[in-house]
Design a protein that fits this description.
With 480 residues, this protein is an alpha+beta fold. It has helices spanning 16-27, 51-57, 96-106, 113-126, 138-150, 184-190, 238-245, 300-306, 317-320, 356-375, 460-478, and strands at residues 5-12, 32-35, 64-66, 72-74, 129-130, 154-156, 159-165, 173-177, 194-196, 200-207, 210-216, 222-232, 257-258, 261-267, 282-284, 291-295, 324-331, 338-340, 349-351, 380-383, 411-413, 416-417, 443-445. It folds into 2 domains: 1-41 and 79-127 and 179-253 and 417-480, FAD/NAD(P)-binding domain (3-Layer(bba) Sandwich); 68-76 and 134-177 and 260-414, Cholesterol Oxidase, domain 2 (2-Layer Sandwich), CATH 3.30.410. Helices cover 25% and strands 22% of the residues. Helix 1 (16-27) runs parallel beside helix 6, helix 1 runs parallel beside helix 11 (460-478) and helix 5 (138-150) packs across helix 10.
Length: 480
């Protein structure tokens, strides 16, 4: 088959996994072609967390549900840089106890806390991971206030942001997200890498020791990208879908995990919100990894959407907006779902059904989150429950059911992973300890789908560290 483009390595997907893989390989002198389904847009092409951003940079405008007994809305980036272009940049390394579990249950080699530290440290340096140089948004400070009143553990999560003094406001700082288009994508291009945005991989196949990616290019024509080595970095739903669509199915797309999340809107007597607030980098970890609490983006459109089932009139929101913020309770569960391609459709069928104990955990998390916000001074709390209670005092917490009703609860997640877990346990793992797909030559995975199970923290720090580790391991063999 004739090659329209050829390279020693082809990488599909330019999010954190793909961008780091591409940059490190190109800087090592390897010829690399990087394919991305979405457009190539600068970080400042649109206001963050805006409707325009959703239409420009989200897959399907953010309208992607995991189906099951309950529906869980999830979002994925679909642009050069992937999820790093649209998220809040919160950075957690994988907890040591999680790495130890992966070692024992999945037989994941060379990934202890000590062995991973160099990779976490390198990513933190390359992305300027740091704490805020000044007090954070007021909505986040409410979390800290409530935690202090209850004696719960709270922390500021570092982010991959650069801060510079604001020339207009003394003691204020401008924050610039260090997404992939600000960091590893420019490094990749400077090293001679070739980027193909708006190029959707349709199928992959291997013939005579060479990989071919059949893709729909930006000009609407099908093109063949041929390489010796192929890396899939499309994310936790798209990577398994592409593999299964191409006939590679062993342990692929059977173990999707995520962090189910329920939200509330809290109204305070004082100002907690503004157009400049962004996402506060504060979380409450008293009950982690079982439960985590944090603050979400609380712009006016997001508030209106979260309050869709609450008795708050739309015309009231502009007046109440500055005193309201969105908070979440996130659970860590071992429940797994599946990813399957659907003939004739671009996107896969994602199925995920919570167990009854998960619904108990979510109810407990919702109850504790409301308790936390009451301790922080909230006047009124609106849980995301259809026909649910309005919480104004501790007595109202009794109205939250022991287990959330799937038919009445609006759930979401931004953390998906584990659909192609790595390790030497061939009974469950799709790839070996360094991302090479079991039983297939020269085919690698390097994205969130590799994470063995739910880490209980924001996963992108782990995705980036493992991407670096796996790429350097590949290069050590490549040079021999």
């Amino acid at each position: 088959m004739q090659a329209d483009h050829a390279a020693r390595v082809v990488i599909i997907g330019s999010g954190p996994g793909g961008a780091i893989t591409a940059a490190l390989l190109a800087e090592a002198g390897v010829e690399v072609a990087l394919l991305e389904n979405g457009p190539n847009l600068p970080l400042n092409s649109c206001p963050p967390f805006s409707l325009l951003e959703m239409t420009q940079k989200y897959r399907n405008g953010g309208l992607t549900p995991a189906l099951g007994r309950q529906k869980i809305a999830y979002v994925e980036g679909c642009c050069v840089g992937g999820g790093s272009e649209i998220n809040s940049g919160l950075y957690h390394p994988a907890p040591p106890e999680v790495l130890e579990r992966w070692r024992t249950e999945y037989q994941l080699a060379d990934a202890s806390e000590r062995e991973m530290q160099q990779h976490f440290s390198a990513c933190e340096h390359d992305l300027s991971v740091s704490l805020m140089p000044s007090p954070g948004p007021a909505a986040g400070e409410k979390l800290q206030k409530g935690a202090a009143a209850l004696g719960w553990k709270a922390l500021e999560v570092p982010r991959w942001f650069k801060y510079s003094p604001s020339p207009a406001q003394p003691n204020h700082f401008r924050a610039e997200r260090q997404s992939m288009t600000k960091t590893f994508i420019p490094r990749f291009l400077s090293a001679g890498g070739r980027l193909f945005p708006e190029t959707r991989a349709l199928k992959i196949f291997q013939k005579s020791g060479r990989w071919t990616v059949r893709a729909l290019a930006a000009d609407g024509q099908e093109k063949n990208f041929v390489s010796e080595f192929l890396w899939l970095c499309c994310g936790a739903t798209q990577t398994p879908a592409l593999l299964r669509r191409s006939g590679i199915t062993k342990n692929i797309g059977n173990t999707l995990q995520l962090h189910p999340t329920v939200k509330v809107v809290a109204r305070f007597p004082d100002v907690v919100n503004s157009r400049e607030s962004g996402v506060p980098p504060h979380q409450v970890k008293q009950f982690a990894p079982r439960l985590s609490f944090g603050c979400s983006i609380s712009s006016l459109p997001y508030l209106a959407l979260t309050l869709i089932d609450a008795p708050v009139r739309a015309e009231e929101l502009p007046e109440l907006y500055s005193r309201m913020a969105i908070y979440y309770a996130m659970i860590t569960t071992s429940t797994t779902g599946s990813v399957r391609p659907v003939p004739g459709f671009h996107d896969p069928h994602v199925r995920y059904t919570l167990r009854h104990d998960d619904l108990h955990e979510l109810a407990d998390g919702l109850r504790k989150l409301c308790e936390l916000l009451l301790a922080a001074g909230a006047e009124t709390i609106y849980p995301s429950l259809v026909g649910g209670p309005i919480v104004q005092s501790a007595d109202d917490l009794q109205g939250i059911p022991a287990a959330l009703d799937p038919a009445r609860t609006n759930l979401m997640t931004i953390h998906l992973f584990s659909s192609c877990p790595m390790g030497e346990n061939n009974n469950v793992c799709a790839a070996d300890s360094f991302g090479r797909v079991h039983g297939v030559s020269n085919l690698y995975i390097n994205d969130a789908s590799l994470l063995c199970s739910a880490p209980g923290v924001n996963p992108q720090g782990s995705v980036m560290a493992f991407a670096r580790r796996n790429t350097l391991h590949f290069l050590s063999d490549f040079r021999k």
